[in-house]
Design goal:
Elements: H1 17-36, H2 45-65, H3 69-86, H4 89-95, H5 97-102
C-alpha cells in the first residue's frame, strides 16, 4: 500500500529542495549569528567619569587662560559632588578640585 502525500503532511514526498534548503540554511545562519552576537557594551561609569574629567580639565585651563575661574569653580563644585558619589574611595582624592588646581 502506497501513501499519498497531502499538503498537511509534516514531511511531504515532494519538496522544493532549493527553497527548503536555502530557508533552512538562512534560519541556521540567523541562529548562529544570534548566538555569537556581542551587543555593544554601555560605557562603564569609570569611562564616563574619565571623559567628564578630561572635558572639565580642559574647561578649567581655558577658564584660567581667560581669567574667568569663578563661574567654572561653581560648575565644578556641582559636578564634583556627582563624580564623588560614583567613584571608589581610592579615586575620590584623584577627582577633588584641589588636585586639579594644585596639579597633584
Amino acid at each position: 500500500m502506497t501513501q499519498q502525500s497531502h499538503s498537511w503532511d509534516i514531511y511531504p514526498d515532494t519538496t522544493l529542495l532549493k527553497k527548503d534548503t536555502s530557508t533552512r540554511m538562512f534560519i541556521a545562519a540567523l541562529f548562529t549569528i544570534a548566538k555569537t552576537w556581542k551587543q555593544p557594551k554601555c560605557p562603564s561609569m569609570d569611562d564616563r567619569i574619565r571623559k567628564m574629567w578630561y572635558r572639565y580639565t580642559m574647561k578649567y585651563y581655558l577658564a584660567i587662560k581667560k581669567n574667568d575661574i569663578m563661574p567654572f569653580a561653581a560648575t565644578w563644585m556641582e559636578l564634583e559632588t556627582l563624580i564623588l558619589s560614583e567613584v571608589s574611595q581610592k579615586e575620590k582624592d584623584k577627582y577633588h578640585m584641589m588636585s586639579l588646581i594644585l596639579g597633584i
